[in-house]
Design goal:
mainly beta, 5 helices, 41 strands, 3% helix, globular, disordered N terminus
Length: 704
């Protein structure tokens, strides 16, 4: 048995196929232990891939605990934008992949406690992530993301806290500008120390958030619950039960034209006119079984199921909706999804020490999709924001079946090889039940299949410095939302869309500097048939294949602690993402920048954070200009914003209290927080708020 003392964030559980370490065999928060096995655990430093780990305690430090955009800016290569629109989720992209998404998360695989937050077609969402109970968030970029299937840019894995003794109850609250407030309650604990049969650990968290919104017609309300219950069956096996629920009601302010943004960034003319909004409810449950079969073999089985209901009202005028082929301005979705991922890991020796992980991943989703007119006539005048006549009715099925194999070879004391392959298969099937004159039967099916290999060679120059080179192939299918609309208001699914394929090469280096880690990476990704926005108007977005594109760039990050209380985080990303063929109808876009992607991103934070007493910190974020359309004729200007926070922590007996205040956008910079790519009416811009304030309080009691 080998014990390594590292930061809690130093072991990427995300890379389970690469670096298996079941939770059932993890030790306390400061020491990583694999019991009853001779294997050597691998730290973030030694991981042969570009991976960043964000600690949950850092995410909750003097923050509202509402959005991932509050705390993930220190991850290089990750562009995370708060759209100030809870009807459309955050805008996430990794190395430029996912930037085209007009709602939800695209091109990135998301997991929460091993349950995919990304559906089989590749569409994901972050709304069910409970920041109050997050233990770590691990972000994997580069070639090895291909080993997780239908994703190109990367993988984000969220792991929630595992309860431990003593039992602790925490209440937290936050009050901020624009009528924003959040209340949260969390209980964690354990019966026994987790090593004996019958020992139980638990984490239960719930929160409620509400805001009037920075912009007009952008108010929202969000209720959330998350639970994790672990039961030790015997000394070699454990089962963990998982539950998650989210309920959101949010208005949709929509995008603005450049002139509207400059005149009044808070306005929402279409939101008020059409009463655009979204209601969302999602509930899911999972069961994770882990068993140590022998000193060399582990088994992991993850099973889950869930349902998601969405109703969305869009800003579409009456005239287009009257066309026989139009699907209306109200989307009504009812989705059910389930899956199972079975994984076996063997550690042995074939001339050199080697680890094999093989598994089979099956996911499926059924969707009932209906469309309605978003108006009713009142004396011949449309009353928008009301559900009208049925205009679409279909049942869509999608599923995937992916076997995979990952190996790790310790060739010498300093040289190691990681290599793996996944065969990803995705099927779509659509049954159209809305067949009328001018709107024929648009049923159809499609399937996509691809071998996805990846490999990495790592050399340890010293115990604290290594270099690696990796390469891999990935692919990305159209999502059901991208298939939903054909260009020029044609009816039916857009089965002309093809999956995109990409090949990535990456060179990186990691070195430990005192009590810190410095990482650097250079990469290039060439893509064929990249899926891009064709047109976007009134909530209807159609897509097309863009031929060839290239994403190349550099990433640099530093996570450093000085003494016991001073902390520095810094990250810089240069990303050149361009079209290599023409994708425009009227002009030549060959060589143009891909919209939605910043060429340069910078972030730095510095703070004094003792365990008790006064603390204070500041952060600065820079984003270069972002093109808004393929023609590169419109863009959001570059911006730099600064934030400050301060607070006080103290304890009395079994009680602990933390009270803080913060200021964001200290210098009241007016800027565009995100863009709607290729919005047909030129309403690309989603403004960010000016200077805003917040105060928070958390109190916990430990039953020691």
């Amino acid at each position: 048995m080998k014990i390594i003392t590292v930061r809690r964030a130093a072991l990427p559980a995300l890379l389970l196929p690469l670096l298996p370490l079941p939770d059932a065999f993890a030790a306390d928060d400061q020491t990583m232990v694999v019991s009853a096995t001779p294997q050597t655990t691998v730290s973030e430093l030694d991981t042969p891939a570009a991976v960043s780990v964000v600690n949950g305690d850092d995410m909750r430090h003097a923050t509202p605990r509402v959005n991932l955009s509050e705390s993930l800016n220190s991850v290089p290569g990750l562009q995370v934008q708060n759209r100030q629109n809870y009807a459309q989720d955050l805008q996430l992209s990794i190395r430029g992949f996912g930037s085209r998404s007009t709602f939800g998360v695209r091109g990135i695989r998301l997991y929460v406690d091993g349950i995919p937050a990304t559906m089989p077609d590749g569409q994901g969402q972050t709304s069910n992530i409970d920041i109050g109970s997050v233990d770590t968030i691990e972000v994997l970029r580069g070639p090895f993301s291909a080993l997780y299937g239908n994703s190109s840019g990367g993988v984000m894995n969220i792991t929630t806290q595992t309860g431990q003794q003593p039992t602790t109850i925490e209440a937290s609250s936050y009050y901020g500008s624009y009528g924003s407030w959040r209340y949260g309650l969390k209980a964690t604990g354990a019966v026994g120390d987790g090593t004996q049969a019958g020992d139980v650990d638990y984490t239960v968290s719930t929160s409620r958030f509400a805001t009037h919104g920075y912009r007009d017609h952008s108010g929202a309300r969000k209720n959330q619950a998350n639970a994790k219950l672990g039961v030790r069956i015997n000394d070699v096996s454990k089962v963990t039960l998982l539950f998650n629920s989210v309920d959101i009601k949010a208005n949709d302010p929509g995008g603005l034209s450049y002139s509207e943004w400059r005149a009044n960034p808070q306005q929402s003319p279409r939101g008020d006119q059409y009463n655009t909004r979204k209601d969302l409810k999602q509930t899911q449950a999972g069961l994770h079984y882990e068993r140590q079969l022998s000193e060399q073999d582990d088994l992991s089985v993850m099973m889950y199921a869930g349902e998601r209901q969405t109703t969305q009202y869009q800003s579409i005028p009456m005239a287009p909706q009257l066309k026989p082929s139009h699907a209306g301005g109200v989307i009504d979705l009812d989705r059910h999804y389930q899956g199972i991922d079975t994984r076996w890991t063997h550690r042995g020796k074939l001339l050199v020490p080697v680890t094999f992980t093989t598994g089979l991943d099956y996911e499926n989703m059924s969707e009932k999709r209906k469309g309605y007119e978003n108006f009713v006539l009142d004396n011949g005048v449309p009353d928008y924001g009301q559900q009208g006549a049925l205009r679409r009715n279909e049942r869509n099925l999608m599923w995937n079946l992916d076997p995979y194999l990952q190996t790790q070879w310790q060739l010498t004391n300093k040289l190691s090889l990681d290599a793996g392959v996944r065969y990803s298969s995705v099927w779509f099937d659509s049954n159209d039940f809305y067949v009328t004159p001018g709107n024929g039967n648009d049923s159809g099916d499609a399937s996509y299949h691809k071998w996805l290999p990846a490999a990495s060679l790592k050399y340890a120059l010293t115990d604290a410095w290594n270099v690696y080179v990796s390469a891999g192939r990935g692919f990305e299918t159209p999502t059901i939302n991208e298939l939903s609309y054909r260009p020029n208001d044609q009816s039916g699914l857009n089965f002309d869309l093809k999956p995109s394929t990409n090949e990535t090469v990456e060179v990186g280096s990691k070195t430990r500097i005192g009590n810190g880690l410095l990482t650097a990476a250079l990469f290039q990704t060439d893509t064929d048939n990249e899926i891009v926005v064709d047109s976007s108007s009134g909530g209807r977005t159609s897509y097309k294949n863009a031929g060839k594109t290239r994403h190349q760039g550099a990433e640099l990050s530093l996570d450093q602690q000085f003494g016991e209380s001073w902390k520095l985080k810094a990250a810089w990303t240069w990303l050149d993402a361009t079209y290599r063929t023409n994708v425009c109808d009227d002009t030549n876009c060959n060589g143009n920048r891909i919209p939605g992607i910043a060429r340069n991103m910078g972030y730095a934070s510095f703070g004094y954070e003792p365990e008790h007493g006064w603390y204070a910190g500041s952060d600065i974020r820079y984003l270069s200009d972002i093109q808004a359309n393929d023609e590169n004729t419109a863009k959001a200007p570059s911006w730099t914003v600064v934030g400050l926070n301060t607070g006080y922590k103290f304890g009395v007996g079994n009680w602990n209290m933390d009270v803080f205040g913060r200021i964001d956008n200290l210098f009241d910079r007016g800027y565009v927080g995100s863009v709607i790519v290729n919005e047909s009416n030129g309403r690309y811009y989603e403004p960010a708020p000016g200077r805003n304030y917040g105060v928070g309080l958390s109190v916990d009691y430990s039953f020691k």
